[in-house]
Amino acid sequence: MELFDVYKMLPVELAYAKGYHVYDTQSNEYLDFYGGHAVISIGHSHVKYIAALTKQLHEISYYSNAVEFKLRNEVAQKLGELSGYDEYQLFLCNSGAEAIENALKLASFQNGKKKIVAFKGGFHGRTSAAVSITDNPKIQAPVNEGGEVVILESENIELLEKTLAAGDVCAVVIEGIRGVGGIYVPSNFFLKAIEELCAKHEAVFICDEIQSGYGRTGKFFAHQHAGVKPDLITVAKGMANGFPVGGVLIHPKFKPKYGMLGTTFGGNPLACAACMSVLDVLEKEELVENAAKVGTYLKEQLESIPAIKTVVGEGLMLGLVFEGDVKDIQHALVEEERVLTGSSSRPNEIRLLPPLTIDVPAVDDFIAKLKKVVPQGVPVEK
Ligand SMILES: Cc1ncc(COP(=O)(O)O)c(C=O)c1O
After folding, report:
1. What domain range is 338 assigned to?
2. Residue 357, domain member (yes or no)
3. Does 369 lie in the same domain as 350?
4. Counting C-beta atoms within 10 Å of the first and last residue's C-beta, which end of the chain has fewer, N or C?
């Protein structure tokens, strides 16, 4: 049997990894400024992460939510404490898309409505409800159609108000910082408008922090830069440093009922051990603060490169916007300089999502390598 060939891959086969480096089968070292789609938060093969998972594997690797498991409650407690959402509740699942599905269900259970407002260029996953609110018809199959979805232009408060005023909107979903669709930071003003309008028109405010959360932007959640408090917050990616985990942080006004949500694997012992060790390392190594500090330095360095038109984003979630297509630059970065970076739906953007452990030497190394492969000559008008 062959694999179902749906992924365009980089010409690299990885064998092992440590910190912010990954190594191929010939032991060539690559600088990882992508973290495998923003997943590596505490660095590859962190000793505490390995120890936590190994210990758990020896104790009990799996049992379902049919039995008590203290570490599961401790993960919720610690996440509440570190994120500033102590009073919220946590539902654990296995991926980002699943977190979105559950958030949409919760919203709909809560107010009985079904129309969802999402935004242009947004990405929320590939399962049925998640893909129906993702602004990309190419990844929607006919079976995903049928939901009542309105995709609006970001920042258009007037249109948002008009849409919500009809009274039939179940939820408004926005990424804390947009990732896949091209890095875009919603204005504080727009996020505040969403918060206020949702409260006024009894719609649920869902913030998708699957990519932008867990310290990546220099605060635990990207929306915290704007001082808003969503009703539901979806998380995944950096949450367990590569172990497949997703979750929804749920405002106390949502009352749980047995059987309302459920999953076989969500919140299993190994997943909880991974989650707990990520939270522990984030706290002890002050990685949220590191993301803010090193992110600022990285942005400054990038802004001094003439070929880059603009640098967008916050902390360690940055988009480097060039004048033209970035394919050649990215290939040269991998093949000549051994640096992994990401792309987005914008053909002229390189997306950087490095581990939150990167430091000034890693940034200097990256900048030196990037400078070697970007077009030289006439500076781009900024
Ligand atoms: C903002 C956002 N939401 C949801 C998802 C879907 O997550 P997953 O691939 O874990 O289903 C992604 C994945 O890239 C994402 O970036």
Report:
1. 14-42+286-373
2. yes
3. yes
4. N
